[in-house]
C-alpha cells in the first residue's frame, strides 16, 4: 500500500485541509469499525504510540493508538493554523508539522515566493523529509493552495520546485483554487499569472477549481434544500455538510465550498485506499491522462452534488449520475466539456456499481463527446467498493479537455488590464529578487499553453481515420 503526504499552504489551503482531514476521519470510521490500523488508514495517517515521548514510535499493525495526519501545514499568518490546533482536529497534528509566521504575505506573490521561500526553505525541506521518512512507499504529494493570495500562490508554487528537486520520483498533484472575476484581492490576477508559470513547469497534475463554480453549486444546493426545487435533501450528505462528522469543525461561510474540494481529494484517492473490482493508482492518472508534459490540467466534476433523500438509487438515477458528470452544472470550473475536445477522461466510481454499468454508460455517452483523433478510446476507469458516507454511490470525472482554455484566457485578460497600466507593480518590484521580466515570462508561458489548446481545438473538425488493425497471417 502506498502513502501520500498533504501539503496545505496559506489560508485557503489550510481551510480546505481542515475539511479534508475531518471528512477522511469520518469516512474511515464508517468503514473501520473495529478500530484496527489497516492499509487504508496508513495511506494518509500514521499510527503513533502516544505513550512514547518525542515523535512517538509508529505502530504498523494492531489497534489504533493515536492517528497523526501525513501532512505539512504552512501559512505566513497564524490565524487558520491556530484555529485548527485549538479545534477538534488538534490531536491529528503536532507542532513538528507546522510552519507559520505572523506577518503574512500581503496578497503579494513575490513576498510569498521570494522572501518567505528563501527564509523558510530549509525548514520546509526538513519537515517534508521527515514526512517522507515516515512513509513505507511514498507515492504522491498533494499540494492545496489558492492562486489569488500571496502565501498560497507564492510559497505554494515555491514548494513545487523544492519537491521536484528533492523528490523527483514522487508525483506532485496540485489542487489550485482560482479566484473569481469578482475577487476582492485586487492583485489576484498578478498572483495567479505568476503562479501559473510555476504550475506549468513543476507540477505533474493540476486540478484547477474555480471559486465561482463552487459558489454557483452551493447556491443551487441551497435552492434544493430550501425546497424551491421540490426535492428533499439528505441532511448528512458528505458532499455538502460536515454534520455528523467524527470531529465536527465550527461551521464557516466557505465550509460547504471547501467540503466539495475535500470530497474531490477523497474520491481521487479512494481506489488507492479501499478495495474494488477495478483499481486505479495515482500514477495511472498521470500516465493515462497527460499525453504532453504541459497539458496536465484536469477538469473535475463530482456527482451526486444535489443529493436526493432516497438511498436506494435505482439504475435510472445511476445513469443520470454519469450524465451529470459531463454536464456544465457539475464542473468545478466554469466550462462545458461536451462542446470541447477531450484528450483523455478518467471515471472514478464508488459504491455498488458493476463494470457492465460503467461500460454501458461510456458507450451511451461516447457519441456526444469529442475525443482527439489519435485517442478515441481514451478512457481510464476505476471501481471502488466503498462509497462516500451518506451515499450509495458517487462518481468523480477527470477530463483532460480543452474547455479549460477560457479560464486561462480570462485570467490573461484580467492580468493585462492591470499590467498595461502598471498598476500595483511597484509592490512586487520592491521585493528583493523580483524583476519586471518575471511578468513578461509568465504571460509568455500562459500564452504558449493557450496556443497548445488552440492547436488541439483546430483538429476537432478533422475526420477520424479508421486505421485498420494489423492482420497476422497464419
What topology does this entry show?
Blueprint lengths: L2 E7 H22 L7 H4 L2 E3 L19 E3 L1 E5 L3 H8 L11 E3 L8 H25 L4 E9 L3 H17 L4 E8 L9 H15 L2 E6 H15 L29 H14 L1 H4 L8 H8 L9 E5 L11 H11 L15 E11 L3 H11 L4 E2 L7 E6 L8 E9 L3 H15 L5 H5 L7 H21 L17
Parallel strand pairs: 1-4, 1-6, 4-5, 6-7, 7-8, 10-11, 10-12
Antiparallel strand pairs: 2-3, 9-13, 10-13
The main pleated sheet reads as: 6 strands, parallel
Following the backbone from N to C, one meets helices and strands in this order, namely EHHEEEHEHEHEHEHHHHEHEHEEEHHH
Mean pLDDT: 88
Question: Could you give the distance between the termini?
Answer: 44 Å
Task: Give a description of the structure.
The protein has 474 residues and is an alpha/beta fold. 41% of the residues lie in helices and 16% in strands. It has 15 helices and 13 strands. The chain has helices at residues 10-31, 39-42, 79-86, 109-133, 150-166, 188-202, 211-225, 255-268, 270-273, 282-289, 315-325, 355-365, 405-419, 425-429, 437-457; strands at residues 3-9, 45-47, 67-69, 71-75, 98-100, 138-146, 171-178, 205-210, 299-303, 341-351, 370-371, 379-384, 393-401. The strands form 3 sheets. A 6-stranded parallel beta sheet has the order 5-4-1-6-7-8. Strands 9, 10, 11, 12 and 13 form a 5-stranded mixed beta sheet that branches. A two-stranded antiparallel ribbon has the order 2-3. Helix 5 packs parallel to helix 6 (188-202) and helix 6 (188-202) crosses helix 13 (405-419). The longest helix has 25 residues, at 109-133. The radius of gyration is 22 Å and the shape is globular.
Amino acid at each position: 500500500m502506498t502513502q501520500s503526504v498533504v501539503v496545505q499552504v496559506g489560508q485557503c489551503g489550510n481551510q480546505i485541509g481542515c475539511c479534508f482531514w475531518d471528512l477522511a476521519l469520518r469516512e474511515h470510521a464508517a468503514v473501520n469499525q473495529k478500530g484496527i490500523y489497516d492499509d487504508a488508514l496508513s495511506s494518509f495517517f500514521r499510527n503513533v504510540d502516544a505513550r512514547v515521548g518525542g515523535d512517538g514510535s509508529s505502530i504498523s499493525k494492531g489497534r489504533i493508538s493515536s492517528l497523526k495526519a501525513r501532512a505539512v501545514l504552512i501559512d505566513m499568518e497564524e490565524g487558520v493554523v491556530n484555529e485548527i490546533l485549538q479545534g477538534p482536529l488538534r490531536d491529528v497534528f503536532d507542532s513538528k508539522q507546522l510552519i507559520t509566521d505572523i506577518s503574512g504575505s500581503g496578497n503579494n506573490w513575490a513576498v510569498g515566493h521570494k522572501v518567505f521561500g528563501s527564509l523558510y526553505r530549509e525548514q520546509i525541506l526538513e519537515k517534508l523529509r521527515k514526512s517522507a521518512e515516515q512513509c513505507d512507499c511514498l507515492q504522491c504529494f498533494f499540494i492545496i493552495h489558492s492562486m489569488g493570495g500571496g502565501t498560497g500562490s507564492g510559497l505554494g508554487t515555491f514548494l513545487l520546485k523544492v519537491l521536484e528537486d528533492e523528490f523527483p520520483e514522487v508525483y506532485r498533484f496540485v489542487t489550485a483554487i482560482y479566484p473569481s472575476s469578482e475577487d476582492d484581492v485586487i492583485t489576484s490576477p498578478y498572483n495567479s499569472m505568476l503562479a501559473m508559470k510555476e504550475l506549468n513547469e513543476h507540477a505533474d497534475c493540476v486540478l484547477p477549481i474555480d471559486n465561482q463554480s463552487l459558489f454557483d453549486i452551493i447556491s443551487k444546493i441551497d435552492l434544493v434544500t430550501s425546497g424551491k426545487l421540490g426535492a428533499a435533501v439528505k441532511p448528512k450528505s458528505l458532499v455538502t455538510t460536515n454534520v455528523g462528522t467524527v470531529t465536527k469543525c465550527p461551521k464557516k461561510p466557505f465550509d460547504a465550498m471547501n467540503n466539495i474540494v475535500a470530497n474531490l481529494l477523497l474520491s481521487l484517492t479512494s481506489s488507492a485506499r479501499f478495495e474494488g473490482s477495478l483499481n486505479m493508482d495515482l500514477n495511472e492518472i498521470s500516465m493515462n491522462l497527460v499525453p504532453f508534459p504541459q497539458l496536465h490540467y484536469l477538469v473535475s466534476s463530482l456527482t451526486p452534488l444535489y443529493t436526493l433523500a432516497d438511498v436506494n438509487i435505482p439504475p435510472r438515477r445511476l445513469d443520470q449520475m454519469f450524465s451529470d458528470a459531463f454536464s456544465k452544472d457539475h464542473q468545478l470550473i466554469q466550462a462545458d466539456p461536451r462542446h470541447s475536445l477531450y484528450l483523455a477522461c478518467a471515471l472514478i466510481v464508488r459504491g455498488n456499481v458493476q463494470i457492465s454499468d460503467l461500460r454501458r454508460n461510456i458507450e451511451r455517452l461516447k457519441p456526444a463527446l469529442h475525443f482527439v483523433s489519435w485517442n478515441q478510446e481514451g478512457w481510464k476507469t476505476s471501481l471502488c467498493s466503498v462509497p462516500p458516507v451518506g451515499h450509495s454511490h458517487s462518481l468523480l470525472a477527470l477530463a483532460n479537455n480543452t474547455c479549460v482554455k477560457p479560464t486561462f484566457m480570462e485570467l490573461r485578460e484580467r492580468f493585462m488590464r492591470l499590467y498595461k497600466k502598471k498598476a500595483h507593480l511597484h509592490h512586487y518590484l520592491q521585493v528583493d529578487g523580483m524583476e519586471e521580466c518575471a511578468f513578461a515570462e509568465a504571460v509568455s508561458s500562459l500564452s504558449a499553453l493557450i496556443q497548445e489548446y488552440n492547436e488541439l481545438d483546430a483538429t476537432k473538425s478533422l475526420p477520424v481515420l479508421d486505421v485498420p488493425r494489423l492482420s497476422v497471417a497464419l
